[in-house]
C-alpha cells in the first residue's frame, strides 16, 4: 500500500506542473498571480520563421502550411499560443511596410555571425528601432540563433571552419548586449542540436563532422551566456536543446512518432506519409508534430525557470541576483 500511496502522491505532484525540487514551496503563480509576458519577440531562422522569408521571395509551395517551413504551425506558433501571445511575422524585409507588422523577425538562412537586414543583427536592430531602443520590461525575447552558421560550417569543405562558429557566437553576444542595454529582462536562448540524425546528414555520411561542429558551438555558446550574465547581472533563461533532441529521437515512439528515420514527403506518392507520425517532413525539415513537441518542451522549461526566478536565483560566479527586477 505504501508503494501505491507514493505513486499517487507522485502523480499529483507531476500534475501540478512543478518539479520535485519546487514541491516544498508555495508558488508565486498561486499566491501572487503574475501578469505574464506582454509580447513574444523572436529572433531566429527556419524553425521559427512564420512568413518573413516568403514575404521576400514569394509564397512557399502548397505542401508548406501558411508560408511556414512545415506542414503546419511551427515552434514559434505553438509557443505563442501557449503563452497567449502572437508570433505574427514582422514583414520587415518585404519593402511594403514602414514599421514591423508583428514581433517575429525570424528569417530562414539568417546568419548570426554576419551583418545585414536579413540576419540576426538586422532583426534585432529593426526591433529595437521600432521600440526607440527601449524594450518593455514584460517582453519575452526568444533568441534562437546560430543554426544557419553551424550548418554552413558543417557543409563547408574540410577543414572545419571554426572561425565561422566563433563569429556566430560573437554575433549573438553582441545582440544580447544591445537587447539588455535597451532594457530586455526576459531572454530565452536555447543551444543548437547535433543534427547528425537528419536524413540529409546521414546520406552524406558526415555525422562525426556534425557532432564536432555542434559540440564546439555549444561550448562556446554556453560560455558566452555565462560571460553576458557576469558582465550585465542579467539572467538568461537557457535550454539544452541538444540533450532534449537526443532524448526525443531515442524515445520517439512514446511521443506518438512511429517513424523517426524516413522522410515523410518521399512517401506521399505511395500513401505512406502520415505527418502526425513522422519526425521528418523533408530530409532537413521536421513535421509540425515535431515542432509542437519542441515548443511544449521549450515553454514548460522556460516557465519553470521563470517560476524559480520568482523565488530568487543567484549566479554562483557573480554572487548576486540575476533575475528580472520587475
Automatic annotation (TrEMBL):
Signal peptide: 1-21
Hydrolase keyword on record: yes
Keywords carried by this UniProt record: Hydrolase, Signal
InterPro entries reported in the protein's UniProt record: GDSL, GDSL_Est/Lipase, SGNH_hydro_sf
GO molecular function (one): hydrolase activity, acting on ester bonds
Keyword check for Hydrolase: yes
Classification via CDD domains: fatty_acyltransferase_like
One Pfam match: Lipase_GDSL
Name of the protein in its database record: Phospholipase/lecithinase/hemolysin-like protein
Organism: Saccharophagus degradans (strain 2-40 / ATCC 43961 / DSM 17024)
Amino acid at each position: 500500500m505504501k508503494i501505491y500511496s507514493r505513486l499517487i502522491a507522485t502523480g499529483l505532484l507531476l500534475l501540478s506542473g512543478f518539479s520535485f525540487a519546487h514541491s516544498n514551496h508555495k508558488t508565486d503563480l498561486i499566491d501572487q498571480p503574475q501578469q505574464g509576458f506582454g509580447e513574444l519577440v523572436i529572433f531566429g531562422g527556419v524553425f521559427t520563421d512564420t512568413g518573413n522569408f516568403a514575404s521576400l521571395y514569394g509564397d512557399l509551395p502548397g505542401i508548406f502550411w501558411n508560408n511556414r517551413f512545415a506542414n503546419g504551425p511551427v515552434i514559434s506558433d505553438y509557443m505563442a499560443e501557449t503563452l497567449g501571445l502572437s508570433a505574427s511575422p514582422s514583414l520587415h524585409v518585404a519593402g511594403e511596410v514602414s514599421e514591423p507588422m508583428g514581433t517575429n523577425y525570424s528569417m530562414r538562412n539568417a546568419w548570426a555571425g554576419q551583418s545585414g537586414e536579413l540576419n540576426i543583427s538586422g532583426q534585432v536592430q529593426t526591433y529595437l528601432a521600432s521600440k526607440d531602443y527601449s524594450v518593455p520590461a514584460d517582453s519575452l525575447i526568444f533568441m534562437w540563433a546560430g543554426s544557419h552558421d553551424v550548418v554552413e560550417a558543417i557543409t563547408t569543405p574540410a577543414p572545419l571552419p571554426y572561425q565561422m562558429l566563433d563569429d556566430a557566437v560573437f554575433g549573438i553576444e553582441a545582440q544580447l548586449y544591445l537587447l539588455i542595454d535597451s532594457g530586455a529582462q526576459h531572454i530565452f536562448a536555447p543551444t543548437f542540436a547535433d543534427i547528425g540524425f537528419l536524413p540529409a546528414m546521414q546520406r552524406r555520411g558526415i555525422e562525426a563532422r556534425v557532432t564536432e561542429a555542434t559540440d564546439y558551438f555549444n561550448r562556446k555558446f554556453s560560455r558566452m551566456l555565462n560571460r553576458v550574465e557576469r558582465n550585465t547581472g542579467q539572467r538568461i533563461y537557457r535550454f539544452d536543446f541538444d540533450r532534449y533532441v537526443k532524448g526525443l529521437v531515442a524515445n520517439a515512439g512514446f511521443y506518438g512518432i512511429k517513424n523517426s528515420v524516413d522522410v515523410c514527403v518521399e512517401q506521399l506518392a505511395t500513401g505512406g506519409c502520415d505527418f502526425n507520425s513522422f519526425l521528418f517532413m523533408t530530409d532537413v525539415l521536421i513535421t509540425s508534430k515535431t515542432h509542437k513537441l519542441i515548443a511544449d518542451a521549450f515553454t514548460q522549461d522556460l516557465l519553470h525557470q521563470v517560476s524559480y526566478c520568482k523565488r530568487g536565483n543567484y549566479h554562483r560566479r557573480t554572487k548576486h541576483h540575476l533575475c528580472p527586477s520587475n
